[in-house]
Specification:
With 453 residues, the protein is α/β, with parallel strands linked by helices. It folds into 3 domains: 192 residues, NAD(P)-binding Rossmann-like Domain (Rossmann fold), CATH 3.40.50; 87 residues, N-(1-d-carboxylethyl)-l-norvaline Dehydrogenase, domain 2, CATH 1.10.1040; 145 residues, Rossmann fold, CATH 3.40.50.720. It has 19 helices and 15 strands. The strands form 3 sheets. It has a 7-stranded mixed sheet with strand order 11-10-9-12-13-14-15. Helix 15 links the parallel strand 10 and strand 11. Helix 4 packs across helix 5, helix 5 runs parallel beside helix 6 and helix 9 packs across helix 12. The longest helix has 32 residues. The radius of gyration is 24 Å and the shape is globular. It starts with a strand and ends in an 18-residue tail after the last strand. 46% of the residues are buried. The C terminus is likely disordered.
Length: 453
């Protein structure tokens, strides 16, 4: 099938490339000329394991192309995939400006029947609006179906080829069958429903996963006060098939381009129909506060952080991606700077992205974990990159001014910590907290505690 993909972000680029790998003739369109030039030249603007090799192979085979000419790409297409970004407006609603603009351009290029599939995350009722808009601008036949994506950054290629399910929302049986047939080589688990339900499935799924994360983080906070171990609690909970073990990893909260945006949007969707989504509002509040626990632990240890040097390990919102959008590190680093600290930051992949958005005169950009830790009063592990968990603790202690380790992702266990001489604190595992490495204070600073609670 001749497929045109509108948008070359995570969803569009991964989806288009994977459809090309399945043998389809795919053209990906983006208005960003620099991005298209990059892709045409064989480079990839995002970090996604396995994607570069797929792009190179399919481009060389002639199945995958890139252009800024949306009109020409639509004219040649049998199916058009909408993968345009829908960022949050200040009030939390999804901004549909770019999506509606793309539909207007598609209308002007319609020359025959097109199957239009919306993979962008959109509020309930959006596809009906897009259908009405397109129908008002063209007399050519078309169908619009909702096919929400459920890709995880860092494993998007794998998720595309091995999805848990494909959701297809269609108001006409033939259109739903065509969209299902296109995706059937990926899985037989295809759930066909109406368009509005498909739109809601995406928001409800992400909101539920965000809820699990905030829930286990609240449990972790209680565990710290009652002496329980959140990892043991999560393991026991996960054995219940009604609950499951996924998304029960305590830490400093979720980030990225999906969960924060979609949770806010669903709250706004509910508000627009005069319903207050109290539960999801609490989920968002818990997540916003959870990341600052790292800063609170440092302040309990040192009191005033002015002049302190804090190493930050991890800037991406999760490992295996260079995406720093709504990463907990953004707020944590900003809070440290506001308190007068100096930051030494590192990330295996995301450092350039973070630096381009959040550069500061008191941030030193470092090449690896040990360089970042040099002369530091504390290390804060914020992203669970495997190289951070594998660091030699002996060398780490030698590099630091004070042996203090705040583990925001629970990467170190009791065996690794035994005898290492660190003041250590994790999330919801009070038995692992260590008071060794008593912090010697410079003459101009006095701590209000000499251990981490």
């Amino acid at each position: 099938m001749r497929i045109t993909v509108v948008g070359t972000g995570y969803v569009g680029l991964v989806s288009g490339t994977c459809f090309a790998e399945l043998g389809h003739d795919v053209v990906c369109v983006d208005k960003d000329q620099a991005k298209i030039a990059l892709l045409t030249g064989g480079d990839i603007p995002i970090h996604e394991p396995g994607l570069r090799e797929l792009v190179e192979r399919n481009a060389e085979a002639g199945r995958l192309g890139f252009t800024t000419d949306l009109g020409a790409a639509v004219e040649r297409a049998e199916a058009v995939i909408l993968a345009v970004g829908t960022p949050s407006l200040p009030n939390g609603e999804a901004d549909l400006t770019h999506l509606e603009g793309a539909v207007r351009e598609i209308a002007s290029a319609m020359n025959a029947y097109k199957l239009i599939m919306t993979k962008s995350t959109v509020p309930v009722g959006t596809n009906a609006r897009l259908r009405a808009l397109l129908a008002s601008l063209t007399g050519r036949p078309f169908d619009i179906v909702s096919v929400p994506e459920f890709l995880r950054e860092g494993s998007a290629v794998k998720d595309t080829f091995h999805p848990d399910r494909i959701v297809v929302g269609a108001d006409r049986e033939e259109a739903g069958a065509a969209a299902a047939a296109l995706h059937r080589p990926l899985t037989d688990r295809i759930f066909v429903t109406d368009v509005r339900s498909a739109e809601m499935i995406k928001y409800a799924s992400n909101a539920f996963l965000a809820t699990k994360i905030s829930f286990i983080n609240e449990i972790a906070n209680i565990c710290e006060k009652v002496g329980a171990d959140v990892e043991q609690v999560a393991a026991g909970m996960g054995l219940d098939n009604r609950i499951g073990s996924s998304f029960l990893k305590a830490g400093i909260g979720y980030g990225g381009s999906c969960f924060p945006k979609d949770a806010r949007a669903l709250i706004q969707i509910a508000g627009n129909v005069d319903y207050e989504f109290k539960l999801l509002k609490s989920v968002v509040d818990v997540n916003r506060d959870q990341r600052f626990g790292v800063v609170r632990k440092l302040r309990r240890l040192y009191g005033d952080l002015a002049g302190r040097t804090i190493a930050v390990w991890g800037l991406a919102f999760k490992p295996n991606t260079d995406d720093v959008r709504e990463s907990p590190a953004v707020d944590i680093v900003a809070a440290l700077l506001d308190l007068g600290a100096h930051v030494r930051a590192c990330d295996p992949i995301a450092l350039p992205n973070f630096r381009s958005r959040h550069d500061h005169e008191r941030i030193a950009w470092c090449g690896d974990a040990l360089e970042a830790a040099q002369g530091a009063d504390a290390v804060c592990l914020l992203t669970e990159w495997p190289e951070f968990a594998a660091v030699d603790l002996g060398r780490l202690r030698q590099a630091m001014r004070q042996p203090v380790l705040i583990d925001g992702r629970n990467q170190f266990d009791a065996e690794r910590l035994e005898g290492a001489g660190f003041a250590y604190s994790s999330i919801g595992r009070p038995a692992l907290n260590r008071e060794e490495g008593e912090a010697a204070e410079p003459a101009d600073a006095q701590p209000n505690r000499n251990h981490i609670a």
